[in-house]
Design brief:
Strand order of the largest sheet: 1-2
Structural class: mainly alpha
Protein name: Polyprenal reductase
Organism: Fukomys damarensis (Damaraland mole rat)
Enzyme class: oxidoreductase
Order of helices and strands: HHHHEEHHH
Pathway: Protein modification; protein glycosylation
Distance between the termini: 28 Å
Largest sheet: 2 strands, antiparallel
Oligomer: single chain
Family: Belongs to the steroid 5-alpha reductase family. Polyprenal reductase subfamily.
Length: about 240
């Protein structure tokens, strides 16, 4: 249940970054000196960037909306057990959502302290991969939400009251294919952001690689747990990737 702390930090911090970015790209307000210096340290370029300004805006917006939804699910959808996480994992989670927002913003092209925007306005940069990436983001988010609803209902009665915190076998949506579709959807959400970046942003693909291995490990451990706990667990169901792993 302390995962909610991660999303509180993300909503506040990445909303903060999104506000500065929005002011810069739409109103021409320079980024604060401290933020500009921080972005330069992280590798932000002082050069034109094609469609990068719109890509960064859409990805940071997606990250912020994703954090809002996950925070809502933590409070109103998920039913957590008494399981705990290590203090190191907890601290890493807090730091991660600060760094991931800065990672996105560091990809924006700069002209001094201003964001470099080609054309008369930001949306003149719109390309097909922006549309595809946002469609993938919405699609993946919907499925992740559905999977969390399914998990939450396993511990509630028909009136929506929590009656236990035991584990049961979930069915429906992507659970028909993998044991942890919520982790798969998380990966797909980050891939959708890579698509929004235009497929070729190496920095973000490194983020996707981290998400892949972290979510795959969690999914594998969950799969082993389900198999050991339930004799009748579906044999065809994979851990993380449908039909593969």
């Amino acid at each position: 249940r302390y995962f909610s702390h991660f999303y509180i930090i993300s909503v506040l911090w990445n909303g903060f970054l999104l506000w500065f970015l929005t002011q810069s790209v739409f109103l021409g307000v320079p980024l604060p000196s401290w933020l500009h210096l921080l972005l330069r340290i992280l590798g932000a370029e002082q050069s034109p960037g094609g469609e990068l300004a719109l890509s960064v805006f859409l990805v940071l917006l997606s990250l912020w909306l994703h954090s809002w939804r996950r925070l809502f699910e933590c409070f109103y959808v998920s039913v957590f057990s008494d399981a705990v996480i290590h203090v190191v994992q907890y601290c890493f989670g807090l730091i991660y959502y600060v760094l991931v927002g800065l990672t996105v913003l560091s990809q924006v092209p700069m002209d001094g302290r201003n964001v470099y925007v080609t054309g008369k306005n930001l949306f003149m940069q719109a390309r097909w991969f922006h549309i595809l990436g946002m469609m993938m983001f919405i699609w993946s988010s919907v499925h992740q939400y559905r999977c969390h609803v399914i998990l939450g209902k396993l511990r509630r009665n028909k009136a929506g009251v929590v009656i236990h915190c035991n584990h049961r076998i979930p069915f429906g949506d992507w659970f028909e294919y993998v044991s942890s579709p919520n982790y798969l959807a998380e990966l797909m959400i980050y891939i959708s952001m890579a698509v929004t970046f235009g497929f070729h942003n190496l920095t973000w693909w490194l983020v996707v690689t981290y998400v892949f291995f972290s979510q795959a490990l969690s999914a594998f451990l969950s799969h082993r747990f389900y198999q050991s706990k339930f004799v009748s667990y579906p044999k065809h169901r994979k851990a993380f990737l449908p039909f593969l792993f």
